Sequence to fold (137 residues):
Amino acid sequence: MVGSSERSGWADILLAAAERAWGGNDPAGAAELARRAWRLRPDDRAGHLLVSALARVGATDELEEVAPVVTETAASDRVRAQAVLARALAQFMFANRPARGRAILAEGPRHLPAPGRRDLPAPQAGAYTLPAGPRRR
Fold:
């Protein structure tokens, strides 16, 4: 049986490898390694890297499962904000669901208690929507 400290050690190794993969422009490799680390120890470091990598590779279905958990459980406002933004970006860019992306950004501030972070989703909605052109009514 694997003990808690051994799991934590493996999670650290996996996260270090995931960070190297991310830095080496291998988001798919980073996602796989971060996913394994998240399963061993779901913490801010693993969650941040996992949602970032999943958004970058367009893994919208998995991101829809993981990002809300990261958003709800992260200790850091920065990690919660990244989870909200990554999830919304994937909806705009890969799933072609801009209305869903806007809804995620609209509910984002309730997860961000720090005043400086609470305002973050609003400008992102505009930035993500711009490439799509004007909205049709």
